[in-house]
Amino acid sequence: MSAMPRQHEGLHYMNLMSSLSKLRETQNYLEIGVQQGIHLSVIHANHAVAVDPGFLINQNITNNKNTVYMHNGTSDSFFRSQYANDVMKGRIDLAFLDGLHVFEFLLRDFFNTEALSAPHGLIALHDCLPVTAAMAQRNEADAHKLGADTHFPGAWTGDVWKVVSILKKYRKDLCVHCFSAAPTGLILITNLDPASTVLKDNYLDIVREYAKIPNDQAAIEEFYDGIELLAPEDAVRDFDHSLFFRV
Description:
With 247 residues, this protein is α/β, with parallel strands linked by helices. 34% of the residues lie in helices and 22% in strands.
């Protein structure tokens, strides 16, 4: 059980992901939500797939990689593409999902990514541990307005925190770990089953169920009551790493 923190003070999520990608000797990496490529530039991988409908690249995204494939479109269009289904199917061993900050989109991105992943793969979800109710609003403008006088003005995580609860309820076979990485946490998921269709088959019912849950302080505090917050530094210690994840 964890109380809702005022802020996450652990290792920054980009440092955590960079270390994870190197520690796991990542061969095939997927990133959804790339924008300028700041995060992608610190990832170590043999091959990386970058997905974004509006790239604004100003970083060297080929850093520490042999090849990079860029899909200039939505994640849904990528998952329908020939490249995803003929080239990447069964090959993704690390993924970072940071697309549109509403839970139904992230849920789709998760089960579509899992279907392309290797069973030993690891999927990371960003922005799922909000530290104010303001930043968890579904509308970005509302989040900015309500958060103007908080200690995180301008922050927007949306309601993707709901995906953690969904996975814990509908996919108990997954290992879902919540790390208190600055600034808005990182969820790391292993024990993947690429053949599972539970989330996809029940997608509409799940969306209806979780759309009814408010994005207010009480609901988010209840969410935190149901999870254990872990120190992100533990995820990248050689021996501690094997306590959490399949390798």
